[in-house]
Batch of 3 targets.
Target 1
Amino acid sequence: MAMVDLSRAPMTDGLGRRIDYLRISVTDRCDLRCRYCMAERMSFLPKNQVLTLEEIALLADLFIARGIRKIRLTGGEPLVRRDMPDLVHRIGRHLGKGLDELTLTTNGTRLAGHAAALHNAGVRRINVSLDSLSPTCFAHITRGGDISKVLQGLDAAREASLAVKINMVALRGVNEHEILPMLQWCDSQGFDLTLIETMPLGDTGEDRTDHYLPLTQVMEHIGRHHVLKALPHRTGGPARYHAVEGMTARLGLITPLTNNFCADCNRMRMTCEGKIFMCLGHEDHVDFRAALREGGLDAVQPLIDRALRLKPARHDFRIGADAPAAAVNRHMSVTGG
């Protein structure tokens, strides 16, 4: 493989937005089947179509050289990949040398066995997807998941001094009654909470219209119990944060449907098969895998420039009777949300 060219200018898309955040999906596989994310029966990529550990690490090297300051490792569930600890250590070597932060999003089921290693590799905070504290509701949403494994993982994360943010997808008629208790629980545990509106990605076998819960309604409900104050705090992603009177936990909101956040998007996403998606809500992508395997990193450089030119102004997520069941055909697990 060719050496990375460190002289390239920082990345800017066609609309002048600085791109400094890369989300890498290391696998399309997951040990849960969350109803808003995946179908109950999924077909996964064969091994030869998935980037190797070395290929992912080399592409991460290149993106950091091009100006990426933050990398988030996602899936599917990233911790189902056996070589994850090696990848985290490999990328973590860039921390303080071009990379400001390396983070991870996980469902937490395997976190107990990895939390200490993540911290040793330089990870300092993680996002854990947890949509219910009820074992019964959790099992329903995840189609059979065991919440006790997630809670054990959260205990291990705390023991390893990892800062934790809980991600909770707000689902009408499913977990809406748990949102305020979840916020209170997060505060008691020393975690932050981010609420997420469900997104129309892939056919999951579920009707998202029935379960779509606008976060404007959720905030009205929480506001009847606690004074909320907008904060300037940002973590690099689309969440907008609020202080909650009487709590140390920050409340984040990701609102792709009720409050579009695309104007200052700083992100691109790479799938485990080497496809770059410049927007979660569009099918347009640039495929790096063949170029990397045939021509090395030098062949990838112009493809990064092409991807930047292709980045759209915004997504077009819609939910309702006049909207398609899915804005794009790929499932959320493919690009990591």
Target 2
Amino acid sequence: MIVKQRKVPLTILKLRALVRRLPPNHPKISSIVNDLNKREAGYKGESSIDFPLSFLDSKRYFIFHDLRLQEQSRFFQLDTLLISKKFALIIEVKNIAGMIYFDPHFNQLIRTKDGKETAFPDPLIQVSRQQSQLKNWFLKNGFPSLPILSLVVISNPQTIIRTSPENRKLQYKVIHPDVLPSRINVMEDSITDSILGEKDLKKVVRIINKHHTEAVSSILERYNLTEEELIKGVICGNCRGNQLFRRHGTWLCNQCQLSSKDAHIQALRDYFFLIGSSITNRQLRDFLNISSASSATRILQSLNLTSRGANKGRVYSLFFDE
């Protein structure tokens, strides 16, 4: 059973909005686009295990995607965590193309692609650290001593995996996605006794899910940007940059003749991901580039938002998911 579904990560949603709202000639745009592309590739890689995992018995395994837990003063994040009565399994997914070599002497991953070598941190070190953090988290929350296993999944099926001859254990730790169900079955068969009963298993799953914490941070602060650097207004979805104007409750594009009643929703999504989850009538007018307070009020009322305060002090709460 999938307890925590995989969703487009919040950071990707924020970066997409930021790319839409920065001028094409902004000095930081290329770096931000590069960061977005890396995260999109990572998310695509993580999603590659969803189909193989669908072959597992949904009554036996409980699956958490994009899980973030706090251990002491730090948070740690797991691509995928699988819980059963016998063990917990951390699955770390890497989307790396080319030929990769696991160097056991210097604990690094070397990728060769198009004749160029690039070094990456060893994901086996990463999952080892995650195992230690999860073990401590289990102890802190009074869980039974559940064996914590780990796998590194190389999502690209064309990626060639190599290592030195003495590093024989690598084949049991690093796999491609299609091998995942059979490897989990081997793990299941290798452990004879169940550590958790049905009641305890459900309690563990419930507590893990309860303690997941989303990372909340400002994407503008991350790149040292200000709100004044953003492109404001309602951007045409067809022209990709031309701003719409509002007439008689309809958004119009004078370039491609697009006509839309709700084009402001995408703009408010951008506001939510870039600026914040609360907005006033004045802030909406400023961001959408409209002058009429009554038009802004109609837009806000049409969204059925919760609010607090009254008159000019009324503040509306925004929320958008993927």
Target 3
Amino acid sequence: MTQRCALAGLTAALLLLGVDTAVAGGIGSNGAQTEETSGHASGPVLDSRVSFHVKGRAPVKDSGPVTSTAVGWEPPACWYEPYWKAEDFKTYTEANWSIYESVGGTPAGIADDKARYKEGHPYKDFNVAKNDEGMWWVAVKNPKMKDDPDAGTCGRKPFWVDNGQNPDVPQAIDTETLAGLAHQRTVVPPTRISMAPDGRSTVNAPTWIWLDQGAFKPVSVTASLPGTGLWATTTARPVSLHLDAGTEDAETLPASGECRINDDGSIGEPYARGKAERTPPCGVRYLRSSGDGTYALEATLTWEITWQGAGGTGGDLPDGTFATTTEVPVQEIQSVNR
């Protein structure tokens, strides 16, 4: 009973420290990751300390994350980042060892870790003597990709890096990593198009489609790692609108269905009286009635995404897209015989 009470008390204390009580036989695994945009350790597992700040946030209703246009591109599923001061890492690790031993674990189960971190092979007493001179780096998973097979590829045990030094370790976090994470969290508003006629289109008559100037503003996301000076900001700007009429019995205008953005930031041209005989620069012409139903007109806005980060870094990231569907009823032209 005494041992059980002691273990329960120790476990409760470790939860307050943010220690993974599920670890047995050393600290080679940090457990499952949960997303914490506040960027701190919370609960019984370790979370990445990366935090995010959004400027130009899209409305919650019907908004959504962009989809990368680059086939196969995605941000990293895991990485290494500075996490522990030496004294904190010692507390964390020795607490896990105590739990392991309290539940009957044998010394052999943690012998390698004790040799590595405490006995000088290669670290002496968790580098406590250098507490203010560096950090212990650990593997963390991308909370949005924790079930991805690549999330398990960061298998290196915690390692020490002196302040101001580049760890020179594959998958160590850097500004480009942060830019990819920011891209993954870019949320844009729905593509609400203006149409004329509005409400019901007519077979063989063009339907004008446009987006007003200022309808879409740039969206920026900054990802940063507190205490390191590492940050990256991505900025998404709309550049074109792609139309899919929702049926093969239709023509897009232009034929490619790609409506480029105008110099003033608008797309297409608003319909006005006197333009009925003109062909719209952006629109669709339906060739068959939708009967009692509708056609699902899909409008996909492409967002160009660039980034800049600490140390003068920066560049381009894959464009992102976000689609919105509008149900369009199409009627036959009604004529009267006299």
